[in-house]
Design a protein that fits this description.
With about 110 residues, the chain is mainly beta. It has a single domain (about 25-105), classed as Hypothetical Protein Tm1070, Chain: A. Helices cover about 5% and strands about 45% of the residues. The chain has one helix and twelve strands. The protein has one helix at about 80-85, and strands spanning about 1-5, 5-10, 20, 25-30, 35-40, 45-50, 55, 60, 65-70, 75-80, 90-95, 100-110. The strands form three sheets. A five-stranded mixed sheet has the order 1-4-11-6-9, with no helix packed on it. Strands 2, 3, 5, 10 and 12 form a five-stranded mixed sheet that branches. The longest helix has 4 residues, at about 80-85. The chain starts with a strand and ends with a strand. The model has no long low-confidence stretch (mean pLDDT about 95).
Length: about 110
């Protein structure tokens, strides 16, 4: 499992953004206010990314969140602490149906 760090979003936009290849065993990303996970799929087939939700509401587990990313597509997910942050690692855990062609970037939006 690899750890992907947040990048500051430049005033010029996403030019110069660094993408990290997904690890086959999953990845961890930071959570918090103003953080957005970008998931890019460069493969010829759609892929599913699962974000673990380690929280419960009144003793009932909240279902993990899945995002399907189309071939050559990009998905964006706000990394909300209350939903995704694991209390032990203080990060969100990601897994993939296949890591082939999946790239990640976590952006810190300007305030």
């Amino acid at each position: 499992m690899a750890t992907v760090e947040a990048q500051e979003l430049a005033a010029a936009g996403t030019d110069g953004l660094t993408w990290t290849a997904a690890a086959s065993g999953g990845d961890e990303v930071p959570t918090g206010r103003g953080l957005v996970l970008l998931i890019r799929n460069t493969d010829t087939a759609a892929h599913t990314v699962t974000i673990t939700t380690p929280v419960t509401v009144r003793g009932v587990a909240v279902d993990d969140v899945t995002r399907s990313v189309a071939a050559d597509g990009v998905a964006a997910v706000p990394m909300v602490d209350e939903l995704y942050r694991d209390p032990a690692s203080r990060r969100a855990a990601l897994s993939y149906d296949a890591a082939t062609g999946i790239e990640l970037a976590v952006l810190r939006l300007p305030r």
